[in-house]
Amino acid sequence: MSNEMPRPYTGPAILSYGFRPFFLAAALFAAAAIPIWIGAWSGHLNLHGPFAPVDWHIHEMLFGYSSAVIAGFLFTAIPNWTGRMPRRGLPLAALALLWLAGRLAVAGALGDRPAPVMVIDAAFLAAVITMALTEIVAGRNWKNLAVIAPTGLYLAANLTFHIEAMRGGESDIGRRLGFATVVFLIMLIGGRIIPSFTRNWLARDKTARPPVPFNRFDAVCLVSAGAALLLWTARPEGWPTALALLAVAGLHGARLMRWRGLTTWRAPILAMLHVAYAFLPLGLAACGLAAAGLVATPPGMHLLGIGGIGGMTIAVMMRASLGHTGRALEAGPVLTLGFGCIAAAAVARALLAQSQLAGLDGFTIAAILWTLGFLLFLVRIGPFLMKPNPARRRANV
Q1: What is the DSSP code string of 42-63?
Q2: Residue 5 — very low, low, confident or very high, per pLDDT cuts 50/70/90?
Q3: Strands (E), the chain
Q4: Are 194 and 240 contacting, i.e. CB atoms less than 8 angstroms apart?
Q5: Residue 186's closest CA among 155, 151, 137, 162?
Q6: DSSP 358
Q7: 60 phi and psi, to 5 degrees?
Q8: Helix 239-257 / helix 216-234 crossing angle, nearest 10 deg
Q9: Three-state SS across 326-357?
């Protein structure tokens, strides 16, 4: 192994670390995609890609927005796991352009040509998995290979989504498998970072009881969740699925309570992680009731999608962006309001879809809140992502 020090990075700040281009792209896309979806849903905008409007909306939230966040997280976390230098510069730019090509292709840049669109769109996740696997193996960081399997299943879900749309006109298994894999990744990664960050924060108070560390109960929660989510993917209706989802909802509600979230109310940047995770058992319980035929399906899907996935990803992007750009880990009023908008959007879409408030239905209220939440993120965090770390700039690094 060479003892030569790595050369200082002299390129644009936006390409200096994985979180920068992908978190910025994810937030910009999230803020734009829902207004586009509203236009398509209302008939005022035509999308000329291979998907029907509903499938475009589902696909781009699951495999457009979420894939950018996952890429940003992985290429920021992996250097910490392996001790290797992060991917930066031209390789990172090429990967970001590949993600953008997928969004344009799905939106209709290639017209209604489903096979080329699928290849271009799937190429991004295939590249992410290849680069992540290469770095983890090169760093001999074997324990973190665990993230590769669900990420590979995520790619399979995307391919399934495309194939179903080509053959039957709309997705079915692909959309549920996409939800299942992203939810499972949040359970896996959230189970690491939430109690760890909470433990560090509570350590300042020597009398505080720390979160319960990962043990067999957490393993049971993850294994049972994986089994229940796969059952739901294959068979979304029926009492076996309903009971499995309700049981997993209870387990993950108990898991969350072990992390001492109620003690974090004075630290919004930390509390929002707990709140976002809480949407997972709520969404799973609602999906369980839907599987039993007791309630409609959309509320559970939107509690998982907007509250669980949207809430957790924006909370992680806030914390990682602040920490890795040399800013204080404090949400402040703007970011706290931004996260609050996402959480409120989940509640509005799940519970108020048929209600009216100030002349707006819950569908529109949720869309406004979601868009506002990401615009606030962009106003506060966007400049940090495009500028060098101030500490490194002062040190002329």
Answers
A1: TTS----SSS-HHHHHHHIIII
A2: low
A3: 356-357, 360-361
A4: no
A5: 151
A6: T
A7: -75, -25
A8: 150
A9: CCCCCCHHHHHHHHHHHHHHHHHHHHCCCCEE
d(CA 67, CA 71): 6
Cα(7)–Cα(56) distance, rounded to whole angstroms?
A: 43
CB 56 within 8 A of CB 38: no
In the structure encoding, which two tokens stand for residue 160, read together? 């399934």
Confidence of residue 206 (pLDDT cuts 50, 70, 90): confident
* Token digits of residue 163: 């194939």
234-274 pLDDT per residue, tens? 999 999 999 999 999 999 999 999 999 999 999 999 999 99
> Are 41 and 53 spatial neighbours (Cβ–Cβ below 8 Å)?
yes
Tell me: pLDDT of 119 over 90: yes
Give the 3-state secondary structure of 245-279. HHHHHHHHHHHHHCCCHHHHCCCHHHHHHHHHHHH
For residue range 50-79, list pLDDT tens digits in order. Answer: 898 899 999 999 999 999 999 999 999 999
Sign of the dihedral through C-alpha 198, 211, 337, 39: positive
Q: How many CB atoms lie within 10 A of CB 131?
A: 19
Radius of gyration, alpha carbons of the chain: 21
Phi and psi, residue 309, nearest 5°: -75, -50
- Give per-residue burial for 278-287: e unless 16+ CB within 10 Å, then b: bbbbbbbbbb
C-alpha to C-alpha distance for 332 and 336, rounded to whole angstroms: 6
CA dihedral (288, 293, 294, 295) positive or negative: positive
Residue 361 DSSP class: E
CA angle at residue 382 from 379 to 384, to 5 degrees?
120
pTM of the model: 0.93
Helices (H), the chain: 19-41, 53-59, 66-82, 90-104, 114-138, 148-168, 173-202, 216-234, 239-257, 268-291, 298-302, 311-324, 332-351, 362-386, 390-394
Token pair for 115: 């096979």
| Other beta carbons within 10 Å of 6 | 8
Quickly tell me which residue has 């039993």 as its tokens.
292
Are 284 and 248 in contact by the 8 Å Cβ rule? The answer is yes
**Residue 206 token pair:** 């020597």
Q: How many Cβ atoms from other residues are within 10 Å of residue 327's Cβ? A: 16
Element containing residue 100 per DSSP (H, E): helix 90-104
Strands 360-361, 356-357: pairing is antiparallel
